[in-house]
Design goal:
Blueprint lengths: L2 H9 L4 E2 L2 H4 L16 E3 L4 H14 L3 E4 L18 E4 L6 E5 L4 E5 L4 H10 L2 E2 L12 H6 L7 H4 L6 E8 L4 E4 L13 H4 L7 E9 L1 E2 L3 E9 L2 H15 L3 E8 H10 L12 E9 L5 H18 L5 E4 L3 H12 L1 H8 L2 E2 L2 E3 L5 H15 L4 E7 L4 E7 L6 H5 L2 H14 L18 H5 L2 H13 L16 H5 L1
Parallel strand pairs: 2-4, 3-4
Antiparallel strand pairs: 1-2, 5-6, 6-10, 7-11, 8-9, 8-10, 12-14, 12-15, 13-14, 13-18, 16-19, 17-19, 18-19
């Protein structure tokens, strides 16, 4: 029997897709930067089926590309073009295995979308605080494999900060049963953290125990116009001084990036006067009746003081949930708006907060020097220093010609980031897009340690090849 016959026998005929019409959605990344040709797409429905599939592929010497919701911004889950690799989709592992309102934990399978997991927690009066723009389609397995950040990192940390335990299928088909619910467990290496952020190169996450928070009973949000990034940091300091625990998100949007949203996304309107910079402030709390008004009053007091100090030029407070969601729609549609505006080059970078004003000015100047007319459209998580310093093709320019300048533009931004002691990949991961940057940014002992871990857990290199590590030759890079 062939490998595909063995997989059909193990998983069922409909769990093994080979028709190009059915595999197309699994063969390209969201940004359409990479496309491949899988030998097949397999869709196991349980951990046992994942084990069987991985064991069969290992025996046949066939590489596996683990895939969640396929929302990677860096081409992290795309098969090669030669038709020799299996895409393993976790989308059918969708069970809520347990939820504990006393311990504030939930155990979910890898194919549950982040939005669905949030809803499951909310039904029990709890909050899963991780929130990202693609949460409607991003799946828990992929979210953890990439250590997603998102809007609430300021308050609750990245995905890895919410993980208590994991269930992982290893490259040889063994299962690490690490679904522990313990908030304290100091017994050797924290193996769960080895797999979180590994981008599917060390094992396949099939389930996770996630840390929850008490449910939110009060929210207060504001959309603010500011004259400078320095003033945005001043506002952040005011909010932290008044009520740091209530501040869940502090999202930055440049004037140019908001203009793109208004031009390309239906149903949005600017809630404040036009400005060069905007921030979306989102506060939340748990408390008795009256907590919502108290939270709104505290936010209004802070904004009033900031207006008097000249740190704001305008601000709008959400008067109801519909207005709050309208504010968030402007922020969440940035990626889609930029996609519709033309070709874009994305820089997912982070620097210390105090360096943010210099980052914005210096990186913009460097890019404009290379491409006159380039549209600078940064936005992101100002509260934790993570900015998506995105670049959109000049109006009327050709998309292909603009993308051909990706390397010098990314290098120009990267040089500024390096000088400011930042990172070239804050939350999106390395994927295939940024492997060429690893040697210069993480070379030496650090990259060598990563290679040793990869070699120990996947000695044959069959899990998500071409991701994270620099290509050894041109043929590997092209694959």
């Amino acid at each position: 029997m062939s490998l595909l016959d063995d997989l059909r026998a193990a998983l069922g005929d409909r769990a093994v897709l080979t028709d190009p019409a059915e595999t197309a959605g699994y063969s390209s990344d969201w940004r359409r930067l990479y496309s491949g040709l899988p030998l097949a797409v397999i869709r196991p429905s349980s951990t046992d089926q994942v084990v069987r599939a991985v064991t069969l592929c290992a025996k046949a010497g066939v590489a596996i590309i683990p895939q969640g919701g396929n929302t990677s911004m860096v081409g992290g889950a795309v098969p090669s073009v030669d038709g020799t690799e299996i895409v393993l989709s976790l989308e059918r592992l969708r069970a809520l295995r347990a939820i504990d309102p006393v311990d504030l934990t939930m155990t979910v399978e890898a194919g549950v979308t982040l939005a669905a997991a949030q809803a499951m927690a909310a039904e029990q009066g709890m909050l899963l605080p991780l929130s990202i723009s693609s949460e409607g389609s991003a799946q828990i397995g992929g979210v953890l494999a990439t250590n997603a950040g998102g809007n609430n990192t300021l308050r609750f940390g990245n995905a890895r900060d919410l993980v208590l335990g994991l269930e992982v299928v290893l490259a040889d088909g063994q299962v690490w049963h690490g679904l522990r619910h313990l908030h304290k467990d100091n017994t050797g290496y924290a193996l769960r953290q080895v797999f979180v952020g590994s981008e599917g190169t060390l094992g396949i996450i099939t389930a996770a125990v996630l840390r929850l928070q008490p449910g939110v009973t009060a929210r207060a949000s504001a959309f603010c116009a500011l004259p400078s990034v320095e003033q945005a940091l001043a506002l952040l300091a005011r909010l932290r001084a008044r009520d740091a625990g209530a501040l869940h998100a502090f999202e930055y949007m440049s004037g140019g990036s908001v203009d793109l949203v208004l031009a390309h996304i239906e149903g949005v309107a600017r809630p404040v006067e036009a400005a060069a910079h905007y921030v979306l402030v989102d506060c939340a709390a748990s408390g008795p009746e009256g907590a919502a008004q108290a939270l709104q009053d505290r936010l209004e007091d802070v904004l009033g003081a900031a207006l008097e100090a000249g740190e704001l030029t305008d601000a709008a407070l959400a008067q109801n949930e519909a207005q709050r969601l309208a504010f968030w729609k402007i922020r969440e549609e940035h990626a889609e708006a930029q996609k519709r505006a033309g070709a874009s080059i994305k820089n997912d970078i982070s620097v210390p907060l105090a360096a943010l004003p210099e980052l914005m000015d210096a990186a913009a100047a460097a890019c404009r020097a290379l491409v006159p007319g380039i549209r600078i459209a940064p936005f992101g998580h100002l509260g934790d220093g993570n900015i998506h310093f995105n670049l959109v093709q000049p109006t009327g320019a050709g998309g292909a010609a603009f993308l051909a300048q990706s390397e010098p533009l990314m290098e120009a931004v990267g040089e500024v980031v390096r000088r400011l002691s930042g990172s070239f990949s804050a939350e999106h991961g390395v994927g295939r897009l940024k492997t060429g940057m690893m040697q210069s940014w993480r070379g030496g002992v650090e990259l060598d340690l990563m290679r040793r871990i990869k070699s120990a857990l996947d000695p044959a290199g069959r899990l998500n090849p071409r991701v994270i590590f620099p290509a050894k030759n041109a043929e590997d890079a092209a694959g």
